[in-house]
Write a structure and sequence with these properties.
Blueprint: H1 2-19, E1 26-28, H2 32-56, H3 58-63, H4 67-83, E2 87-89, H5 93-109
Antiparallel strand pairs: 1-2
Helix pairs in contact: 1-2, 1-5, 2-4, 4-5
Length: 110
C-alpha cells in the first residue's frame, strides 16, 4: 500500500512540476500514460536498486552525510529513463529535480 501511495505522490509531483514549467526538458510520448508508466517503473527500480545498495553502502553514506544516497537516486532516475522508451529526459537538470522530488517524498513519508 505504501508503494502505491508513494507512486501516486511522485506521479502527481512530476505532473505538477511539468504543468507549472519547473521541469523543462522532459517529454512524454503518450502524455499521462507515459508519465504513469515512468513513475511506476521508477518506483520498482528504486525499490530494487536502492534496497540492494542501501545495505552495501551504509558506511559510505554515513561518512558522506547522505551525498552518496543522492547519487544513487540520480542513478536510479537515469536507469529508469533508459528503460522506459516513451520518456525523454534532456540533460541532467530534470534527472536532478526528479531525484530531489523522490527525496522530499521519502522524507515526508518517513
Amino acid at each position: 500500500m505504501r508503494f502505491f501511495f508513494r507512486f501516486a505522490l511522485t506521479a502527481l509531483a512530476i505532473y505538477l512540476l511539468i504543468q507549472y514549467g519547473y521541469l523543462q526538458g522532459v517529454t512524454f510520448a503518450a502524455g499521462t500514460t507515459s508519465l504513469l508508466v515512468f513513475t511506476f517503473i521508477l518506483g520498482l527500480v528504486n525499490l530494487i536498486v536502492w534496497g540492494a545498495l542501501r545495505l552495501i553502502t551504509f558506511p559510505i553514506r554515513w561518512l558522506t552525510l547522505g551525498i552518496l544516497g543522492f547519487a544513487i537516486s540520480l542513478f536510479v532516475v537515469y536507469l529508469t529513463d533508459e528503460f522506459v522508451t516513451g520518456v525523454t529526459l534532456i540533460w541532467w537538470t530534470p534527472i536532478i529535480i526528479i531525484a530531489l522530488v523522490m527525496g522530499v517524498i521519502s522524507a515526508i513519508m518517513g
